[in-house]
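Provenance and format

Records in this collection were gathered into a single text stream. Each protein contributes a sequence line and a token line. The two records reproduced below are adjacent in the stream.
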Amino acid sequence: MEIERKYAINNLPGELSQYQFKKIEQGYLCHNPTIRIRKSNDNYILTYKSKLGIGKRKEGDAIINNEVELPLTKEAYNELLPKTDDNLIIKTRYLVPLDNGLTAELDVFEGFLNGLVFTEVEFPDEKTANEFVPPAWFGKELSSNKQFSNYNLSKLSSIDGLGI
């Protein structure tokens, strides 16, 4: 299970080169359920996400999905890549340590999403997610705004009109 919160950012948490990072590209094969392929550095992954069995969520709740990740070979990834819908998302994900052993995954988007930056935090359980106090460099919470799901972002041609 994946439990996360998503935020705009007010400012960067210092020089990004000090943090570990991953170069990510991902595309979507299906939306409901979500089936995604991802290249993360030299790792290739097929991800299945669904809301099956997860109760109705209210505004301000963390994002919760059932999630299964399966390894892919580079060849399988390249075979599936042309089958993805819409645009390929390309981003650099910086891993910024937070208090209590948590990590902010700061995504800096490239290509058609150039200029978009936000962060996600994954939690071990709902209680931790609900008690989370974001650091000052975090901005408005975007968790309930489906407009900022990576799937929806892959359907855009630019970041115009996103409002952050």
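Adjacent record:
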Amino acid sequence: MPSPQKILLIDDDATMAELIGFMVGAFRRGPLLVEHASTYEEGLRKLLTGTYGLCLLDYHLGPRDGLELLREAKTKQCHTPIIMLTGDSGEETDLAAMDGGAVDFMNKIELNPRSLERAVWYALKMSAAVDELRDLAAVDELTQLPNRREFDRRLQEEWERAVRFRRPLALVSLDLDRFKPINDTYGHPVGDEVLRHVARLLASQIRQSDCAARLGGDEFALILVETDRKGAQYVASRICALAAATPLQVAAKQLTLEVGISAGVATWPEDATNHEALIAAADADLYRVKRSRKLAAATAGRSVG
């Protein structure tokens, strides 16, 4: 039997909370479990945990109102769908709730098990569809890693957390060596296999709290939380060595391709004062590494000659 999906009810009226719990219990589909919070502060704290499939929010919460809570939750990136409940019948209240981010608005006087059930399941269904679209918008289709949009969001989020708590944060910028000749020689399908191979390698070498993303083309990046320069350089070196030691086998073409990766590292607080500057610093270090390799190769060629 599946675990019941949780609904958070935020309402300072204990009698109404009991009534809504009874109505939800009478739903024809389930299972659903109602958890009750009786104050603004308790309700917001529970809502922001992200563990609820839906929130039923009373418009009137003592000295503070549900509309204020709704707006505060949305500014804190809460994606839980919220249905506003009120005893008011004014159209202005309805519009204010919807403008604030509520998915629906229901008058308590008109509530019954069937109308509440329709509203709840519609909101849950729409939320699932929005979540699916959000996931698709955040993922690179080829590699299944987070894409540039999601990388930017995650980096800003981790930057703000690092600054707030004065904890180190590292960014590793990576790109593939000699990727264009692979595409030109063997075609883009093989190039795509190389990109997927690298994506799997990167994902296998980071912690769950970190983030590996494809930024576009053959460019990748790692966000390493709670990581200083020494730790980031170790991760970058380990990945480059692993890639060199793990050639790609393309069975369909009976090919064995060596895959080289170059990496640049930047850290906070040493290298940047904002997350955009951190990206620029990691890219600059990557270009420095690639220039050094080219110079070393050219010098070696002259020596042999």
